[in-house]
Design a protein that fits this description.
Blueprint: E1 2-6, H1 10-21, E2 26-30, H2 41-44, E3 54-57, E4 66-69, H3 71-82, H4 90-120, H5 126-147, H6 159-168, H7 178-181, H8 183-193, H9 196-201
Parallel strand pairs: 1-2
Antiparallel strand pairs: 1-3, 3-4
The chain binds glutathione (GSH).
């Protein structure tokens, strides 16, 4: 059985979308980051970086348990475990991996900063709001361009879509209006939102 330690945030939901997409059985352990539960000693043994998500699979490589943190690593692990949503052809595989890395290194962290300064910072910091707003618009532009004339971020539905979608779905916190500003990305979002396993994954925990 797979144990998922998570909270209702984009990085957690990437993994629940993948688990749902692969029809894997899993138990959800909510880690309430608004109550600092990510700093508990018990959670630290699973996630040394004190962040969700973390995953434990009793049936890991060679049948031995494995514990993982970092959502991108977890997505790659699940894709390799199941043989799904990550093509085996090297060219197509690296196409997916590069967009996964783009999300992990750019679309996630910078939009996270936009969320913080737009919604949660105890004071208005115009420089920071403008800085992350500008970067959010640039990143959305990159995504939109990639999606022009395509169904999915890479050549087929993949872990890259699962990684990017939950961040895109928080567009209001980023002060982005994808329907008018980024129509190709919006069409993809509607496509993603219509998938049953995405609906389920987005409700975890
Ligand atoms: N690079 C990490 C980032 C994880 C991350 O930032 N998780 C956030 C929630 S989306 C978290 O646990 N925040 C709690 C904190 O920062 O204390 C991943 O993708 O797994």
């Amino acid at each position: 059985m797979i144990q998922l330690y998570t909270w209702g945030t984009p990085n957690g939901r990437k993994v629940s979308i993948m688990l749902e997409a692969c029809h894997l059985h899993y138990q959800v352990h909510p880690v309430d980051i608004t109550r600092d539960e990510q700093y508990s000693d018990a959670f630290l043994t699973l996630s040394p970086n004190n962040k969700i998500p973390a995953l434990v699979d009793d049936d890991g490589p060679n049948g031995e348990p494995i514990t993982l943190f970092e959502s991108g690593a977890i997505l790659l692990y699940l894709a390799e475990k199941t043989g799904e949503f990550l093509p085996s052809d090297p060219r197509r595989r690296y196409e997916v991996i590069q967009w996964l890395m783009w999300q992990m290194g750019g679309f996630g962290p910078f939009l996270g900063q936009a969320h913080h300064f737009n919604r949660f910072a105890p004071e208005q910091v115009p420089y920071a709001i403008e800085r992350y707003q500008k970067e959010a618009r640039r990143l959305w532009g990159v995504l939109n361009k990639q999606l022009e004339g395509r169904q999915f971020v890479a050549d087929e539905l993949s872990i890259a879509d699962f990684a990017i979608y939950p961040w895109a779905a928080r567009y209001e916190w980023q002060r982005i209006e994808p329907e008018t500003q980024f129509p190709a990305a919006w069409a993809w979002m509607e496509r993603m939102a219509g998938l049953e396993f995405v609906k389920w994954g987005m409700q975890v925990p």
